[in-house]
Amino acid sequence: MAKAVAAPTRALSGTAFATLLLIALMMGANHVSARLAFNHGVDVATAVVVRSLVTTGVLLALIRVQGVRLRFSARHKRMLPGIGLLIGLQSLCLYSAVARLPVALALLAFNTYPIWTALWARVVYGQRPERAMLVAMPVILVGLAMALDVFGAASGLGAAGQWSRIGAGVGFALAAACSFGLALVLTQHEAGDVDGRVRTATTMGIAALVALTTVGLQGGFHWPDAPVGWGGLAALTFLYGTAFTIMFTVLPRLGVVGNSAIMNVEPVCALVLAWLVLGQSIAPVQVAGALVVVGAVMALGLRRR
To answer: Which residue windows are transmembrane per the record (predicted)?
Structure first.
């Protein structure tokens, strides 16, 4: 996937930093485009199928052009389908959150994934969380509570009214974070030695199958009912696929290890884009909470180990 908790071990060059910000902007724009598509007839499963299939095709072409060898051990063959299933669930849940919440708030709730990653590492592999994580956890949760306006003070609805409005969306976002956290832990321990391009193409392909199954269960695809919807679907597919292509072709040449925490500014990018494109806005206290969450997650990713 696009994010990871690990961070670079040396200072980023200006070009690398700008590239990471570009990827964050594209991923934020991807979710704003998805909301445009959802507002004009597209459903979540259809969007995930199109996005995942196109991204898988791009990565497979990249693998072929670069001559990457496909090598899977018995462990990889056991674990990669499970990881792909989790990524498929994460994709469906996150887009479901984006369809129900202001885009930036959906991404902020999803940005709790480092907490879930630490929890799953403890449960599955018995790893104790680092002190930095223990310090960051309450900060992230307090910032998220501010951003979501959990007591309904900013909205004037009160706690009950606010949760009746955001509860389903927050639930989907947290489910996405939970499944993504487990996918990260399993990837690190069971499939970390698989080439990143191959691993991502495999998981994206399985995610597409998960979404296709959902499409079948709901009676077929739901395509846009207006030109704006088609534009949103095309844009989210292009932005997602392009961001992944940049990630696997440009970043390694720039000496960026993994996916830097700089990309966790994605919710901030989405906040600005959603305001410009969708007219979505949130109260100042919610903006402050968003900055707290983003700052805490970036601090976790940028810490020296």
So the answer is: 44-67, 79-98, 104-125, 132-154, 166-186, 198-217, 229-249, 261-278, 284-302
CB proximity list for 204: less than 8 A, separation 6 or greater: 52, 55, 56, 59, 84, 87
Q: Are 203 and 87 in contact (CB under 8 A)?
A: yes
42-79 residues labelled b (16+ CB within 10 A) or e (exposed) = bbbbbbbbbbbbbbbebbbebbeeeebeeeeeeebeeb
Round to whole Å and give the CA distance between 270 and 145. 19
User: For residues 200 and 62, is the Cβ–Cβ distance under 8 A?
Assistant: no
- The token duo for 143 is 């910032």
Q: Answer whether 180's CB lies under 8 Å from 93's CB.
A: no
Q: Which letter does DSSP use for residue 10 in this model?
A: S
Asked if residue 113 lies in contact with residue 267, where contact means CB atoms within 8 angstroms, the answer is: no
Rounded-to-10 torsion of CA 71, 75, 78, 82:
-90
What percent of the chain stands above pLDDT 70?
Answer: 92
Radius of gyration of the chain (CA): 19
Rounded to 5 degrees, φ, ψ at 12 are -80, 145
Q: Record the pTM.
A: 0.90
CA 246 to CA 44: how far, in whole Å?
Answer: 25
Closest listed residue to residue 39, CA positions, set 198, 276, 232, 168: 232
Mean pLDDT of the chain: 90
HSE on the CB side for 150, CA within 13 Å?
9
